[in-house]
Amino acid sequence: MARKTFISYKYSEAQGTRDKILGALGMDARYYQGETSTSPNLTDRKTETIKNHLKKMIFDTSVTIVVISPNMKLSNWINWEIEYSLRETTREDRTSRSNGIVGVIQKDYYFGGYGWILNSIRNPDGCSSRSIDESKLYDIIIKNRTNLKNPIYACPTCQSVDSLNGSYISLVTEDDFISNPNQYIENAYEKSKKINVFNITKQTNAQKNWWSSFL
């Protein structure tokens, strides 16, 4: 079943990935609630205007797709969009529940691959697993990874956590996501239905401080 989705991304470097995702969704792209190449430009609008516009789009969705790109942390909005996606929000007579969230790691279009953030490591027991450069990620993403209360291990010996089901915010490569977007969207949605089995962080101090600068 198709889910209403919102894509959070840094426009200057990830609009192409956004368009690829929408293309991969095919007919299901009609359930997408976020910006497209034909959306009005809001960059010159006031912060509160932009925020209200984003709230309207996110509120009616059930899954947020976050494009993990090299300079994502320079965005003024992605961190807030993730945190708003995790809130239970009431508008008029409706209350939304926390969105499922999946991170899509953007491929390096100059050199290919994902070495800018991913590395493969070999554990002492001989298993291979991936390591992620967390300096590229917002705290809200880091705190909602490997946060299943009863961990699911891909390997019980080295206790490497299942990359898809062991985190509320799973990170998948662009290639994997594009090949089967509904698999990952549905996985994120199903986790949102049982959110209580995760230790969820819905807001970080960095975000509180960011918004205080506009008061």
Brief overview:
By secondary structure, the protein is an alpha/beta fold. The chain contains 7 helices and 10 strands.
Descriptive tags:
single chain; 215 residues; alpha/beta; Rossmann fold; four-stranded parallel sheet; two-stranded antiparallel ribbon; 7 helices; globular; disordered C terminus
Distance between the termini: 41 Å
Write down the domain tally. 1
The mean pLDDT is 86
Question: What does the overall shape look like?
Answer: globular
How many helices? The count is 7
How helix-rich are the residues, as a percent range? 25-40%
CATH topology: Rossmann fold
CATH architecture: 3-Layer(aba) Sandwich
**In this structure, how is the largest beta sheet organized?**
4 strands, parallel
Question: Beta-sheet strand percentage?
Answer: 15-25%
Q: Which stretches of 5+ consecutive residues score pLDDT under 50? A: 210-215
Largest beta sheet: what is the strand line-up?
1-2-5-10
H-E string: EHHEHEEEEEHEEEHHH
Annotate the secondary structure layout:
Blueprint: E1 5-8, H1 11-25, H2 47-59, E2 63-68, H3 78-86, E3 90-91, E4 94-95, E5 100-105, E6 118-122, E7 128-132, H4 139-142, E8 153-155, E9 160-161, E10 169-173, H5 174-179, H6 181-193, H7 205-212
Parallel strand pairs: 1-2, 2-5, 5-10
Antiparallel strand pairs: 3-4, 6-7, 8-9
